[in-house]
Write a structure and sequence with these properties.
The chain has 79 residues and is an alpha+beta fold. It is built from 3 helices and 6 strands; from the N terminus they run H-E-E-E-H-E-E-H-E. It has a 3-stranded antiparallel β-sheet with strand order 1-5-4. Residues 1-20 form the signal peptide. Keywords: Signal.
Length: 79
């Protein structure tokens, strides 16, 4: 039982840490643009990234916002 709880905690941590979007230029996070774009789409901004699940229906809008805010692109893929 202890092992399964620990395993689940590790998996959830990995999933939640990888499910974030940032505005980036040359691989560098543009925190101001990330926060502004995240907030404009009603997303959940935390420290330096935007929770992807909170803007999942607006990923292309997030990328457009990043670009219009001076960042090259977003690090989140969208269909």
């Amino acid at each position: 039982m202890q092992f399964s709880n620990m395993f689940l905690l590790v998996i959830m941590t990995l999933v939640s840490s990888s499910a974030a979007c940032k505005c980036v230029t040359n691989g560098q996070n543009q925190v101001g643009a990330t926060e502004s774009c995240c907030n404009s789409l009603g997303g959940d901004f935390n420290t330096d990234d935007c929770a992807a699940g909170s803007i999942s229906e607006h990923l292309s809008n997030f990328r457009s916002c990043c670009q219009s805010s001076g960042a090259a692109t977003s690090d989140c893929d969208f269909p």
